[in-house]
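Deliverable D2.4 — example input (structure tokens):
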């Protein structure tokens, strides 16, 4: 069977890696959805709004080919290490449902029903078939004790097999999944020849969180929030500059910081899978409350309101993903 072509849509995961991503191209095979590139579809523009409570993305795509292009559009989410449960990464799944981000997409003003692919990986191996056969592919740490309730509903044979293979082991719950969950929304989209297609996406981001005793001494080289288990970075991933540290110190002296920090990440680099650079790119960062302090690596951001920062560029080629901290 010939694999279908695919275009992937990036998403923001406030997982803090939670990183989500931009759209891109790819194909679907027996091992799931893979990303590739396209020489037919150009991203004319992208307006990206990032806040702790909502992500909004408006795209305009243009098919430069002399024929319609039908492809699979993919919106990848960050991988989730389910072995961490709720405690270590401080996850907060926005919605206790299969569409746990409340992901919605409209194309040229019409709603599109996106499907959700889930895949499980354990020690670098794809174990989706084994996990699905046991009925456990939908496991996720929605609430404290969720794993215990979910495993209680599994067939005895499947539960025993997962334990025997080390896919379930003692952790936050007696039977805690040991795999990484990879999820992607996808749908089939036709791009008419020499025409624009407008796409609007909204969803609730994952937000990583942590409590800190001294905000002014936070190191962007170390893991924060849900980035539990990652190796320290070689450089400050949030670009916490001297001015930001001074603002954090002043806020602490005024007792204006509550000791909480939120972490968000957005996968932007997959936009390079489209034809050429992004024609026009506009970024809006909303820190939520005027007293919050935000830090991210994005030179040229302008403060445009009590809570917003913005940046615009043309022929934009994303070289890195967006990772930001919001000190609350």
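Example output (designed residues):
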């Amino acid at each position: 069977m010939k694999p279908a072509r695919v275009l992937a849509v990036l998403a923001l995961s406030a997982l803090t890696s939670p990183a989500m991503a931009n759209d891109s191209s790819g194909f679907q095979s027996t091992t799931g959805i893979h990303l590739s590139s396209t020489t037919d579809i150009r991203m004319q523009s992208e307006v990206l709004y990032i806040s702790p409570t909502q992500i909004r993305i408006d795209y305009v795509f243009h098919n430069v080919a002399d024929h319609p292009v039908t492809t699979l559009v993919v919106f990848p989410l960050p991988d989730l290490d389910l072995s961490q449960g709720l405690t270590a990464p401080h996850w907060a799944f926005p919605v206790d449902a299969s569409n746990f981000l409340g992901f919605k997409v409209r194309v040229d003003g019409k709603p599109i029903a996106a499907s959700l692919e889930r895949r499980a990986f354990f020690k670098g191996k794809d174990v989706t078939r084994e996990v699905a056969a046991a009925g456990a592919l939908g496991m996720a740490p929605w609430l404290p004790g969720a794993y215990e309730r979910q495993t209680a509903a599994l067939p005895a044979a499947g539960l025993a097999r997962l334990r025997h293979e080390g896919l379930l082991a003692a952790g936050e719950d007696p039977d805690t999944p040991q795999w990484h969950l990879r999820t992607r929304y996808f749908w089939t989209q036709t791009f008419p020849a020499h025409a624009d297609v407008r796409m609007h996406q909204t969803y609730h981001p994952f937000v990583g969180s942590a409590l800190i005793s001294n905000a002014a001494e936070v190191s962007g080289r170390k893991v924060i929030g849900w980035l539990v288990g990652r190796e320290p970075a070689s450089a400050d991933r949030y670009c916490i500059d001297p001015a930001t540290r001074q603002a954090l110190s002043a806020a602490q002296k005024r007792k204006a910081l509550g000791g909480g920090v939120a972490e968000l990440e957005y996968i932007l680099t997959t936009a390079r899978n489209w034809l050429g650079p992004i024609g026009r790119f506009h970024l809006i960062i909303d820190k939520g409350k005027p007293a919050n302090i935000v830090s991210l690596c994005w030179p040229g951001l302008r403060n445009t309101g009590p809570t917003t920062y913005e940046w615009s560029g043309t022929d934009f080629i994303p070289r890195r993903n967006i990772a930001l901290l919001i000190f609350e």
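The helical segments are 128-133, 146-152, 156-164, 242-253.
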